[in-house]
Design brief:
Blueprint (H helix, E strand, L loop, with lengths): L1 H5 L4 E12 L2 E11 L8 E12 L2 E9 L3 E2 L5
Antiparallel strand pairs: 1-2, 2-3, 3-4, 3-5
């Protein structure tokens, strides 16, 4: 999944990540900072949340929410 979205990105950094549970669902959140000419000039932040349901130890459903590519204003 990440390779498809970010695989051709020359500059990629995981800035934050969290894993938790909400009821019986797993919750993953991550913030990445990327730079790629195909997106634009400079760095961009992308925050994504995933809510995952499992069945017998395998992912049966995933819901994903993405901020999209936001110009980074961070200095970290």
């Amino acid at each position: 999944m990440f390779t498809r979205w970010f695989g051709d990105t020359p500059d990629f950094a995981l800035v934050e990540a969290e894993i938790g549970e909400i009821g019986e669902r797993l919750h993953f959140r991550w913030l990445v900072r990327i730079r790629a000419e195909r997106i634009g000039i400079g760095f961009f932040d992308v925050e994504q949340h995933a809510y995952i349901e499992t069945d017998t130890g395998r992912i049966s459903r995933i819901r994903l929410l993405s901020s999209g590519y936001c110009p980074s204003t961070s200095t970290r």
